[in-house]
Amino acid sequence: MVPFTRGKERSRTSNSVLAEARQMADLGYTEIQLLGQNVNSYKDPAGKTSFAELLAAVAQVPAIKRVRFTTSHPRDFGKDIVDAIDAVPSLCDHVHLPVQSGSTRVLDACSASTPRAVPRAHRLGEGGPSRDQPHHRCHRRFPGETETEFEETLTLLDTVEYDGVFSFKYSPRPNTPSLSLDDVVPDSEKARRLTVLMERQRDIQKRRNQRHIGHLLEAMVEGKNEARAQWCGRTRKTRF
Fold it and tell me: What Rg do the C-alpha atoms of the chain give, in angstroms?
């Protein structure tokens, strides 16, 4: 959908990104988030800087304390990005990375149904997609998932223990290859599975958050929930 809605992706020069980062720092901003539909597919028009190098360079701008990026694509998520996060303290330990399913068969079907000109499938590594390849952040749905394959998605949640997920049941979208596939799962079953998945994730998040009880964490305040009279913010890893 995105290529039809937003048009062809374009990358800014690394010099222009760094100039804006310095401008933001001069204005008093302390956190920067690099944005793109597939942000780690960045290609410097000048051919000078990889995405990992750009991340590190932005993170080293004086007065910038935190740098994040979203959304990543598994196809271009290389070891150089992981190494940069490990090496540069101001790069947050936070990755938003989509995955369609916890089932290798469904992932393979996603790739098989995707035209080369409009990549929609989330390939998870060389040799085709597999749930055993790098861990991912975001869950979406795909038509034709069996109950067994849905259970595989639940076990992926249990294995990875995500800090958070954005989950959606499958629905047809214009100009997408999945329109030609049979959608044999009733809407009521899609809704049930989505509820089960979200409840499982809430249990995981509650368990993970409880580990921080009694600990002092640095958080950047982002706003206030007036209804709950609570301040909201983020650590380097997640949102509270």
Answer: 19
